[in-house]
Design a protein that fits this description.
It catalyses: ATP-dependent breakage, passage and rejoining of double-stranded DNA. This protein is of the alpha+beta class. It is built from 17 helices and 53 strands.
Length: 880
């Protein structure tokens, strides 16, 4: 069709113009085709391929695989290729899609008992070809998936076979296995949950108790579920690899995030290393049955900072967005995991009820026929048919013979019942035992009563069903993923500064490409740069190859957002010939690439002195004035420590109204900031300065933290907010160097308990203070000055020795950290408890020079105060 001959009609209609004047225009309606074909296709993909059904948790291909496995089940393994071929009788697609779906089910280790190489979800290795691997149904699948008598059936796609509409699954299988699929116009992502927790939650639903559900991933890892949102749209789960420090230059990854494997994880680490985000020496992948990835670090690289960088820049942390979408009544349903579990639990109850009702009907039928059979044989009714010549006569004779004896039966006798009686063989009649027949009837009556009781107490029956599943199949299915709240890692704080920042002060350029100009600092490509200009303007801009910020740069540095400890000291002249002002300020937040005027905005203003101080230092400067008129003092000192720290927009305090000739640094300053108060948040296992968790104390620059682990290791560290703490930490506090540590430990070699008291001898080294025998273990440890322990002895030949209290300070003097200590007792010890310590007055520390705290008692911001010196060299404040 020639495009030039197409002309649009209304909406989506087009018509074709013909050269033959006698022919009529041909109209093609796209709308009808779109509605009929595309929507049919979309519905098919949604209902028949991508989204699981809420009833049994299966997509159609999965349901057909499980049905085929049941048809082939004889207790032995079947070649997967055979199962795939059998499934193609029900699934109108290629064998590849069936084989892939079957491997995914098998890797979840719940429904299929596998044999051979089924791949590895940890490494990402694929399964062997279907002809090489075998499968059969697991015992769990046989128990919870099948019940033909309550299954609704439908014809297969070619009409030759019957397949289940839904399998009667009596377990929240969808939540246990998870599901993911992309259809036309919608998708689904149900995360896997823990087997045991699902059963416990189902029991709570039946008991009408509250419950919470969180995912549990087969790859383990650590997950933050605080924004899970019940698995609905808008929720998010952050999952991290489990990384620990093997030694000072080696990290080890033992668990990986869900949706990753060791191959993709290592690739992401190598990519981050190539981009300079992190710095590593080499990676070893020792993964087999369990994950073990060794990351070797170069000398001088911080393991703690590298761990944070791995979370920030690699697949060691992934974010998963759940989306609960299922099919119910042939329609998509967006629902949370709590409602999924309620629907599944209610369906399980109804399936169990249906099974019990069918079982009751069958038992009553058995009881009915057993009773009829007894009547028929015991009363010799079979003899009545000897003289009958027709079938109708036989039936009538038996019916007449039964009537006097059938009043106790629970239903009327039908012709089918009589026909069954005629089929009883003579041999069975001759060997009929009335007592055994009565025992069978009574046993059936007991079974009937039990089933009726279960139906009357269906909730209790369902609870028992779930508990039996937990007891039978729950072993080894404990939670693998640790739930923990995460702290947010700022990429700029952990990125490796792998490039250099330069500045051309005169021309006003900063960047990483100015290698012929002045070096400023190491930086990364995600850092920001703060720049101060001579005219009093300030700007923060992103690191780039070359950026123009303004001529006459006086100060440039890498900028840290929310940094309250970096203080800028500045003296500026207001206008061309106005007075000079002094101010101290910090810069915590800004708008990038915006110019900020730090002066009063008058034309000709200029900064005459400037310093940036990373720890709030306050120097002393000497100010020299120009000889103007009758000035008596041309030289005086200014101590920045006397000034309050204000905002960057503050006017400042007047220094002098006379012109300044120059300013000289007289004395470098010390920090005027308070010692930092540091807290430990046990939830995220991190230090912070935001008041979260337990206060550890106030720390100056040289103060350290004391860390003691259950393994008997002790070390001290400078507190760093990026520090990662190992599992088994039992002591975390501010270290007092002269305060002894007291411990009671069991020596594995001598099989005795020992007491020791010691000081940390090497603050820069981790040491073990118990013996290194594999059976040695730390019992108690205390950092109190006078701890007291209670020793509880074991019974010996029925005799119980009285408990003993031990004052550890009086028991042993402080010795070296490697000393064995004094033996506690030769008696057999059952338990050791730490009691309340004895009172002790801590020695007063030698007073240190008081660090000046910024105070606002004297307000000098009105600009009318002059700071100067009198004849004795003392600072004076005079009002203009």
């Amino acid at each position: 069709m020639d495009e030039e001959n197409l002309e649009p009609l209304e909406g989506e209609h087009f018509y074709e113009k013909s050269d033959n004047p006698e022919s009529q225009d041909t109209i093609t309606k796209v709308t009808g085709m779109y509605k009929d074909w595309f929507l049919d296709y979309a519905s098919y993909v949604i209902l028949e391929r991508a989204v699981p059904a809420i009833e049994d948790g299966f997509k159609p291909v999965q349901r057909r695989i499980m049905h085929s496995l049941k048809e082939l089940d004889d207790g032995r393994y079947n070649k997967v290729a055979n199962v795939v071929g059998h499934t193609m009788q029900y699934h109108p697609h290629g064998d590849a899609s069936i084989g892939d779906a079957m491997v995914q089910i098998g890797q979840k280790d719940l429904l299929i008992d596998t044999q051979g190489n089924w791949g590895n979800i940890l490494t990402g290795d694929g399964a062997a070809a279907p002809r090489y691997i075998e499968a059969r149904l697991s015992k769990f699948a046989l128990d919870v998936l099948y019940s033909p008598k309550i299954t609704t059936w439908q014809s297969s796609y070619d009409g030759r076979k019957n397949e289940p509409v839904h399998l009667p699954v009596k377990f929240p299988l969808l939540l246990a296995q998870g599901a993911e699929g992309i259809a036309v116009g919608l998708s689904t992502k149900v995360l896997p949950h823990n087997f045991l927790e699902l059963i416990d939650a189902s029991v709570k639903i039946l008991k009408k108790k509250p419950f919470t559900l969180y995912p549990d991933f087969p790859t383990g890892g650590v997950a933050d579920m605080s924004n899970y949102n019940d698995g609905m749209r808008g929720g998010r789960v952050r999952v991290r690899a489990k990384i620990s420090q093997q030694d000072k230059s080696t990290l080890v990854i033992t668990q990986i995030p869900f949706t990753t494997n060791t191959t993709s994880l290592i690739d992401s680490i190598l990519k981050a290393n190539e981009k300079g985000k992190i710095k590593i020496r080499k990676i070893e992948d020792n993964t087999a049955a369990d994950v073990e990835i060794l990351i070797h670090l170069p000398n001088g690289v911080s393991p703690d900072k590298t761990i944070d960088a791995l979370y920030a820049f690699t697949a060691c942390e992934t974010s998963i967005a759940p989306l609960g979408c299922v099919i119910q009544d042939q329609k998509p349903l967006f629902v949370g995991v709590s409602d999924m579990l309620r629907i599944s639990t209610d369906r399980t109850v109804e399936l169990l009820r249906s099974e019990l009702e069918i079982e009751l009907t069958e038992l009553e039928e058995q009881w009915h026929f057993q009773s009829l059979e007894r009547i028929f044989i015991e009363n010799r009714i079979y003899r009545r048919i000897e003289e009958e010549e027709t079938w109708e006569g036989v039936i009538k004779a038996i019916d007449e013979g039964l009537k006097p004896f059938t009043k106790h039966l629970k239903r009327a006798v039908t012709e089918e019942d009589i026909v069954r009686l005629t089929e009883i063989r003579i041999k069975r009649i001759s060997k009929f035992d009335i007592d055994k027949a009565q025992e069978k009837i009574e046993a059936l009556e007991g079974d009937i009563e039990q089933v009726k009781h279960n139906l009357e107490h269906i909730i209790d029956f369902a609870i028992d069903f779930f508990q039996n599943l937990k007891e039978k199949y729950g072993k080894g299915r404990e939670r693998k993923t640790e739930i923990r709240n995460f702290d947010n890692i700022e990429a700029t704080k952990v990125v490796l500064r792998n490039t250099k920042l330069y500045v051309n002060r005169e021309e006003g350029f900063v960047g990483t490409g100015l290698k012929k100009d002045e070096y400023v600092a190491d930086c990364s490509d995600i850092d920001d740069v703060i720049v101060f200009l001579r005219d009093g303007n300030m700007m923060v801009t992103k690191v780039d190859v070359k950026t123009f910020v303004g001529k006459d740069i006086i100060y440039v540095a890498v900028f840290t957002k929310n940094d309250k400890r970096t203080i800028y000291n500045m003296i500026y002249r207001d206008g061309k010939s106005g007075p000079s002002y002094v101010k101290r300020f910090n810069v915590t937040s800004i708008t990038r690439d915006k110019l900020y005027d730090l002066t009063q905005g008058n034309k000709g203003s200029q900064i005459v002195y400037f310093s940036g101080n990373p720890n709030g230092e306050a120097e002393v400067v000497t100010i020299l004035l120009r000889q103007v008129g009758s000035i008596k003092k041309l030289k005086f000192d200014l101590d920045f420590a006397t000034l309050a720290i204000k905002g960057r927009a503050s006017k400042g305090n007047k220094v002098t109204r006379y012109p300044i000739k120059r300013i000289e640094l007289k004395e470098k300053g010390i920090s005027t900031l308070k010692p930092r108060r540091i807290w430990f948040d046990d939830t995220v296992q991190r230090l912070n300065v935001d008041g979260r968790g337990e206060l550890l104390g106030e720390f100056k620059s040289n103060d350290r933290l004391l860390i003691i682990n259950q393994s008997g290791k002790v070390k001290t560290i400078i507190p760093d907010l990026s520090t990662h703490f190992e599992e088994g930490m039992i002591v975390l506090e501010k270290w007092v160097p002269k305060k002894p540590i007291s411990a009671i430990y069991y020596d594995g070699e001598k099989t005795r308990y020992y007491i020791k008291r010691f000081l940390v001898e090497n603050e820069n080294k981790e040491e073990i203070f118990i013996t290194e025998h594999p059976n040695s273990q730390l019992e108690i440890v205390s950092t109190d000055y006078r701890p007291v322990a209670e020793i509880i002895f074991s019974k010996v030949k029925g005799v119980q020795k009285e408990n003993m209290e031990v004052d550890l300070e009086g028991f042993i003097a402080v010795k070296g950290i490697k000393a064995l200590g004094n033996q506690l007792t030769t008696d057999k010890v059952r338990q050791i408890n730490l009691l309340e310590s004895l009172p002790y007055d801590e020695p007063e520390e030698e007073p240190e020079p008081e660090e000046m705290e910024v105070k606002d008692e004297v307000d000098l911001t009105d600009g009318n105060t002059t700071i100067g010196l009198d004849d004795d060299g003392q600072i004076t404040l005079s009002l203009d």
